[in-house]
Amino acid sequence: MNSTEKSYTDILTGDDSVLMNRLIKKDIGYYKSEFSRLEKKKVKLSWNWGAFFGGHYWFFYRKISGFKFLALLLNILIVYYMSPVMYDLMNELFTSASEGDINLFGVETYIQNFNLTSIVLFASLIFVQLPRIPYALLANHIYKQHCISTIANIKRVHTDESKAQRAFNFKKGMDIIGAIVAIIISVSVFMLVSAACSQRLLENGLIDR
């Protein structure tokens, strides 16, 4: 933490507590309680269901600058580099299915008759969601540090009260539009990777249209 920044305990007991409330805006009681608990126990790990279900979109929703783009980039990289791995998996799966060698839960299953896109999307979806666990564990700590830094930076950069308020209004609350844009980008990349994987299997004659 920068030496000019206050600890969360200082903010909680000082005038900046009001600014913290405005910055969080929604679920103030939950976050201030979690921030206090993390500060008191001097730990970084907790659990945030919003970050778990929201994934990297949660960081956009909460306007956590910097980390939100890092989380989005991580998601895109996972999907991108997953493509060859997913292709090899599907290639082996469909090859074995065509030879009648696959047996799932004791039932011989010919997967080549399934809809390929559905299978690829389902398997890919599970893999892509893995980062949600560390996101959920670290979300409250990251958000706490974000709030502390935001308050300190705005007050340091903008000595004029009116300018500070304008800057603070831009940072406070939630960013639904940003979260929607992140969803569109992630889904687009995900669909492109899945389509590419399906096309390669189609070209190799392992599945029919």
What gyration radius follows from the Cα positions, in whole Å? 23 Å
Mean pLDDT: 77
- Number of E-state strands: 2
Q: Order of SSEs, N→C? A: HHHHHHEEHHHH
**Main β-sheet, spatial strand arrangement:** 1-2
Q: How many structurally independent domains? A: 1
* DSSP summary: helix tally: 10
Uncertain runs: 101-113
Which structural class do the helices and strands define?
mainly alpha
Largest sheet: 2 strands, antiparallel
Shape: elongated
Topology, element by element:
Layout: H1 8-13, H2 16-24, H3 28-41, H4 49-54, H5 57-61, H6 67-98, E1 103-104, E2 107-108, H7 116-128, H8 132-157, H9 161-171, H10 176-203
Antiparallel strand pairs: 1-2
Helix pairs in contact: 6-7, 6-10, 7-10, 8-9
Describe the structure.
This protein has 209 residues and is mostly helical. 72% of the residues lie in helices and 2% in strands. It has 10 helices and 2 strands, in the order ααααααββαααα. Helix 6 crosses helix 7 (116-128), helix 7 packs across helix 10 (176-203) and helix 8 runs antiparallel to helix 9 (161-171). The protein starts with 7 loop residues before the first helix and ends in a 6-residue tail after the last helix.
What are its keywords?
elongated; 209 residues; mainly alpha; 10 helices
Q: Can you describe this structure in just a few lines?
A:
This protein has one domain.
